[in-house]
Each structure stands twice: as structure tokens, then as C-alpha cells.
Amino acid sequence: MKIDKKRFKKTFPYLAEEMGSKASRIEIAGVRSNVTPDEKATSSIYDGYEPDVIDFLRRCDNEEQAKEIIRYLERKKEITPSHAAKLRKQLREKGVRSFGTKKEEDYYLKKAGL
Fold it and tell me: In this predicted model, what pLDDT tens digit does every residue of 25-65 receive, in sequence order?
């Protein structure tokens, strides 16, 4: 649809003002258009991935943090009370590292090779 500037300003005065001001401009430093197939595959490895309770527990440094995670997820009804009880039992009997090695900062980015 074509529209002249005068009519546009009359019909959409605030939008025209915003588009004309320098305050709403965003500088784009660069655009990548030549992404290799390997880069596409690695960057999308975790697309749509939803971490579960074990993923969160693997980020804990100690038992108290793990207990807090379990309480929170149970309260939010993201895990059932029976599942929470099993997790607490495992935590009490085997410790926080029984859920797996610690997931450090940027775990998923490093795993995806980014």
C-alpha cells in the first residue's frame, strides 16, 4: 500500500514522529548471512529444550540448594509430591552429585560449541 508522507503524518502522527526522531534508531553492527551447515546444526541443538529437575539439581553446589530447588518445583507443581520424595531420599542417601556432574556456567553454550 502506497501512502504519501503528508497523509501518513496526518493519519499516524505519533508513529510518524517516532520514525522521524533519532531516539528510536538502533545501530546494527553486522549481519551474518553465510552460516555454515555445521554452525546451524550446533546452534539449534538445544532449540526447544526444557530443562528438567535433574538439570537444575546438577547446577547446585550443596544439599541445601538442591532441597530448595525440589521445594520450589514441588510448590509450582512442576514435579509431583511422590517424585519430590524420591529426589529427597536420593539426595539424603547419596548426595547432590548422585544426580550427575555439576553443570557449570554456560554449560549449554559450551556443549553446543558456541
Answer: 666 666 555 656 655 555 556 677 788 899 999 999 999 99
- Residue 111 CA to residue 114 CA, distance in Å, equals 8
Q: Name which residue leads in pLDDT, 27 or 93.
A: 93
Question: How far is it, in rounded angstroms, from Cα 53 to Cα 90?
Answer: 13
Single-letter residue type at 109: L
CA dist 86 and 82 (Å) reads 6
Evaluate if residue 22 carries a pLDDT over 60: yes
* CA distance linking residue 114 with residue 44, whole number of Å: 10
The radius of gyration computed from the CA coordinates of the chain, to the nearest angstrom, equals 25
Question: Could you give the CA distance from residue 53 to residue 106 in angstroms, rounded to a whole number?
Answer: 18
For the chain, the structural domain boundaries read 53-111
